[in-house]
Design a protein that fits this description.
Pfam families: FAD_oxidored. By secondary structure, the chain is α+β, with helices and mostly antiparallel strands. The protein is built from eleven helices and 18 strands. The strands form five sheets. Strands 1, 2, 3, 4, 5, 6 and 18 form a seven-stranded mixed sheet that branches. Strands 9-10-11-8-12 form a five-stranded antiparallel sheet, covered by helices on one side. Helix 1 runs parallel beside helix 4 and helix 1 runs parallel beside helix 11. Bound molecules: flavin-adenine dinucleotide. The site of flavin-adenine dinucleotide has 37 residues, from helix 1, strand 2, helix 2, strand 4 and helix 11.
């Protein structure tokens, strides 16, 4: 039994970032680059979060002006020989390991500290300020103090613990669908591509070069659906396996593809820990069925094999804080601009719904964008906290646009700058005006 007030303090920082995912890593890197003493606390063994542990690849296309950290990540990937955004594809693509390595190198080079394998367990709040957080490690529970905290856990874990207002899901409390992703090797990608093209599969438009992308969504007239139906007839697949199927080649790994599926459509509430655990066991079965089906029925997969399954669930949406501003679909439609902008978004409203299928709002023309204000990162309850990443203050629909990796990197980048500027001015993050961050 722990007595929280007697727990040993193992560090004191200007900024502690909890969660070293896409947003958290960017925030930590930028704050450290600007001179803050920064620690990232991460429960897994890599920076990159969903992009690494949930195998989410590639970063979606975003044609806005990006911040310096996004460009530095891309440049460093290229310096490592990673084929990314090379004219054949517009995606910033890499293996999970390359992305994690680049983020880690950047953060350490700028003087940041990382505590891996440490789970945020509780926090101590006094006078609207988080004084310390408690983390569970293999050695036991420790406390860490900081002037500022950044919640980049994806699930708003620190914000909720500290008493920040929050919500989750759509108007009925249903969340976006979660996936358990996987990767396969030994695929004859050219044969698979030729087969898809022979069906006039218009969802496979990337016909140049080595890169190939393919998909099938049930009851939407995808040309691949009859093959999947045959898989059900033959007993390889169940009806639920047909909800959503998508895969991309992995540059620099010939014969390998990454799968943005299966959708765990049985799970409606991503905020229920038992449902999350059940989603993992369901996902394992679904991946086994999909792999068996592809090997037996899909041209090009005759000698294919499973390389790995994700070590984290791919949660698209769960909790969102209710901050000083709630970004909405109206802001998306208006292409809203704000004086305290932290990032520009141009991805469409991309909802994978278990109850309503895919909900996509009108896409922007290239060059159009909306802005996300700093006020979506701060709240009324805690003064020294920023919340970043997919759990910022938005409506359910707006979250479906801001959640892509390029946007959360830019958001993290600006949040890191805000931490450094607020530290220099000795201003609380909640009082900081949030101007000139991009
Ligand atoms: C299935 C799926 C497919 C997607 N497809 C694409 C795509 O193709 N392209 C694209 O650009 N975007 C895609 N996205 C969206 C995008 O990947 C995510 O929205 C984005 O990566 C979220 O970043 P984040 O930093 O907010 O959270 P995360 O990357 O999830 O980071 C959160 C971090 O916090 C850590 N953490 C959580 N709780 C604790 C705790 N208690 N203690 C310590 N650490 C903790 C986690 O381990 C993790 O590292 C997809 C998302 C999903 C789920």
């Amino acid at each position: 039994m722990y007595q929280w007030n007697k727990i040993k303090v193992i560090g004191n920082y200007d900024t502690v970032v909890v969660g070293g995912g896409t947003a958290g890593a960017a925030a930590g890197i930028r704050a450290a680059k600007e001179g803050n003493k920064v620690l990232i606390v991460e429960k897994s063994l890599a920076l990159g979060g969903a992009a690494v542990n949930a195998l989410v690849n590639p970063m979606m296309e975003s044609f806005v002006e990006h911040g310096e950290i996004f460009h530095e990540i891309e440049r460093r990937l290229k310096e490592k020989g990673v084929t990314t955004r090379d004219g054949i594809m517009e995606y910033v693509h890499s293996t999970a390991e390359a992305k994690a390595l680049v983020l880690e190198e950047m953060f350490l080079e700028y003087g940041g500290g990382i505590l891996y394998d440490a789970v945020l367990t509780d926090c101590q709040v006094k006078d609207q300020k988080i004084e310390k957080i408690f983390v569970t490690t293999e050695e036991g529970v420790y406390a860490i103090e900081a002037e500022q905290f950044v919640d980049a856990t994806g699930d708003a874990v620190l914000s909720r613990m500290a008493g920040v207002a929050y919500t989750a899901g759509d108007e009925n409390g249903n969340n976006q669908m979660t996936s358990l992703r996987f990767e396969m090797g030994g695929i004859d990608v050219e044969k698979y591509r030729a087969y898809c093209l022979s069906l006039n599969d218009e969802f496979s438009p990337l016909v140049k070069g080595y890169f190939f992308e393919s998909a099938m969504v049930r009851n939407k007239n995808f040309k691949l659906e009859p093959v999947f139906r045959k898989g059900v007839e033959l007993g390889y697949l169940k009806e639920e396996d047909l909800v959503y199927y998508q895969c991309f080649s992995i540059p620099d790994q010939p014969g390998c593809m990454t799968f943005n599926c299966p959708h765990i459509s049985s799970m409606k509430k991503n905020t229920d820990v038992w449902a999350r655990s059940r989603a993992v066991t369901d996902g394992h079965q679904m991946i086994f069925r999909l792999v068996s089906f592809l090997k037996a029925c899909m041209p090009g997969f005759e000698h294919a094999y499973l390389i790995r399954e994700a070590s984290a669930l791919g949660v698209r949406e769960s909790y969102r804080i209710v901050g000083k501003y709630v970004l909405s679909e109206d802001d998306y439609i208006k292409r809203a601009r704000f004086e305290d902008a932290v990032a520009k978004g141009d991805w469409y409203i991309d909802v994978h719904s278990a109850t309503k299928g895919l909900v996509h709002m009108e896409k922007y023309q290239r060059g159009e964008y909306y802005e996300i204000p700093y006020r979506c990162l701060i709240n009324e309850q805690v003064d020294n906290l920023l919340t970043i990443g997919r759990c910022i203050s938005t409506t359910f629909l707006a979250q479906a646009s801001i959640r892509i990796q390029p946007t959360v990197i830019d958001m993290g980048d600006a949040a890191g700058k805000a931490c450094a500027d607020a530290h220099t001015k000795q201003t609380a993050l909640s009082k900081f005006e949030g101007k000139n961050l991009i």
